[in-house]
Amino acid sequence: MARPTMAQDIERRIKELILERGLGPGDPLPTEAELMELFGVGRVSVREALKALQAVDVVEIRRGFGTFVGPLSLSAFAEGLAFRAAVRQCQGEPGLLELMRVREALETGLVGAVTAGVPDEDLAVLRGLVAAMETEAGRDGRVARATDRAFHLALYATLDNHLLSEVLDAFWAAMDRVRADMDDGHQDPAVTCAQHHEIVEALAAADGERAARAMRTHFDGIRSRLEPRRARTGR
């Protein structure tokens, strides 16, 4: 196993410093000169480490103002997922299908927990999004990806799990990136609306099994469009 470089070691120590000082997004970090003195290293190594951490949203460098703890988002994770899937898809492998299956496992496994108690206001939001889908289907002949994405993110709001929301959104972002380059086709919008309507009604009835079944049916439709593409590209 290769030994970490000086810059990689500084990256680790900066992360430890953030944790030790209880810093959060937007909080200021020591200056370059202070980091050099604190770690006993040179300016080049510190800058290399900070740039690497900036690339993954751990730090934010604001020219003229200093260095701060970054937003700690999963955008770099989503970008990596998208690129990996795109490369595999270009090679005739099921990159997009793999992304979808991971998302399916997450959503199907979690939707039952949502039925434990969905506030009326959350149900109203979900029904409003289904209504928006129906309007889009009638007007444009397709459901907007943004509306579909908003529905699935709103679906798990009652779980109050910020990390879950970020992970699901990262998978959405990755799938959207790959789909933009390799159009996988679109489901009949009437079917899409009906499937989302069934998910909401299962939640309203507090029926976890029905909700999981409805979610699986929804993903069956997505899979049916991706698997034939896999066969075509694999030839």
Secondary structure layout plus pairing:
Blueprint: H1 6-20, H2 32-39, H3 43-55, E1 59-62, E2 66-69, H4 75-90, H5 95-114, H6 120-140, H7 145-155, H8 162-181, H9 189-204, H10 208-233
Antiparallel strand pairs: 1-2
Helix pairs in contact: 1-3, 4-5, 4-8, 5-8, 5-10, 6-7, 6-9, 7-8, 9-10
Structure description:
Pfam families: FCD, GntR. InterPro entries: GntR_C, TF_FadR/GntR_C, Tscrpt_reg_HTH_GntR, WH-like_DNA-bd_sf, WH_DNA-bd_sf. Keywords: DNA-binding, Transcription, Transcription regulation. GO terms for molecular function: DNA binding; DNA-binding transcription factor activity. This is FadR family transcriptional regulator. The chain is mainly α. It has two domains: 6-69, Orthogonal Bundle (Arc Repressor Mutant, subunit A), CATH 1.10.10.10; 94-233, Four Helix Bundle (Hemerythrin (Met), subunit A), CATH 1.20.120.530. It has ten helices and two strands. It has helices at 6-20, 32-39, 43-55, 75-90, 95-114, 120-140, 145-155, 162-181, 189-204, 208-233; strands at 59-62, 66-69. A hairpin with a 3-residue loop joins strand 1 and strand 2. Helix 7 (145-155) packs antiparallel against helix 8 (162-181).
